[in-house]
Amino acid sequence: NAGVTQTPKFQVLKTGQSMTLQCAQDMNHEYMSWYRQDPGMGLRLIHYSVGAGITDQGEVPNGYNVSRSTTEDFPLRLLSAAPSQTSVYFCASTSPVSNEAFFGQGTRLTVV
Amino acid sequence: KNQVEQSPQSLIILEGKNCTLQCNYTVSPFSNLRWYKQDTGRGPVSLTIMTFSENTKSNGRYTATLDADTKQSSLHITASQLSDSASYICVVSGSGNTPLVFGKGTRLSVIA
Fold first, then answer.
1. DSSP summary character for residue A79
2. Which residues of A touch B49 (CB under 8 A)?
3. Cβ of B22: how many Cβ atoms within 10 Å?
4. Looking at beta carbons, which residues of chain B come within 8 Å of A44?
5. What is the per-residue burial (b if ≥16 Cβ within 10 Å, else e) of A76-110?
6. CA distance A34 to A46
7. Cα–Cα distance list, B16 to A84, B57, B64, B72 (Å)
């Protein structure tokens, strides 16, 4: 049972480059979300989705795009990377029954 | 505004000692409260869940309490071990598909 799988685990980008962080879950959860975690800031919500075809902005959405074409996948796109986007990114899938969030292992992104 | 405040921000204790972490929240309406443990370099993992009607719940050496009237929760760790060194995050769920509200976490270091 894989749970939530994030790729890549590590990434270095140059300012202005674009990339997609992948997230897949095999628990058939409708609710998925992306967070960034910075020292002293805790987990901050970037975007979330309550089901295929439905996405919404979180607390810090600027500079990021998401789409949800299937229940399983919820990719996060950085349009034009900036040093301020250097962070650890976590994808989560939330059970509708227990409200427990299952997190991926994280992607450590550095923008130089 | 829905908020979760945790204290202390960080804590250092000797192996074998007990400790208590605090969580105050202003999330309304309230569905449940979870404590997550996040090891360095990993995603958070749920330890306990507290619903409105529950006062105390134990999971091994971890005991969580909830006072829904004062909107406070605590996580007590008994006979700490080196492997308890981690960040502990308090997360509150509201109603329906509203996003989870995360505290910034308490960084616990257990030393020999």
1. S
2. 98-100
3. 15
4. 102
5. bebeebeeebbbbbbbbbbeeeebbbbbbebbebe
6. 5
7. 40, 21, 19, 26
pLDDT in tens, chain A (112 residues): 679 999 999 999 999 999 999 999 999 999 999 999 998 888 999 999 999 999 999 999 999 999 999 999 999 999 999 999 999 999 999 998 888 999 999 999 999 9
Q: Cα B22 from chain centroid?
A: 7
Distance CA B101, CA B6 (A): 12
**Cβ pair B43:A105 closer than 8 A:** yes
* Eight-class DSSP state of B83: G
Contacts 24+ apart (CB under 8 A), A79-82: A79/A18, A80/A16, A80/A17, A80/A18, A81/A13, A81/A14, A81/A15, A81/A16, A81/A17, A81/A18, A81/A19, A81/A109, A81/A111, A82/A15, A82/A111
The gap from C-alpha A94 to its chain's centroid, in whole angstroms, comes to 13
Q: Where are the beta strands (DSSP E) in A1-112?
A: 4-7, 10-13, 19-25, 31-38, 42-51, 54-57, 64-66, 76-78, 87-94, 101-103, 107-111
On the CB side of B55, CA atoms within 13 Å amount to: 1
Owner of token pair 């829905």: B2
What residues have CB less than 8 Å from A39, skipping those under 6 apart? none
Single-letter code of the amino acid located at B82? L
Taking CA–CA distances from A4, the nearest residue in chain B reads B43
Amino acid (one-letter) located at A57:
Q
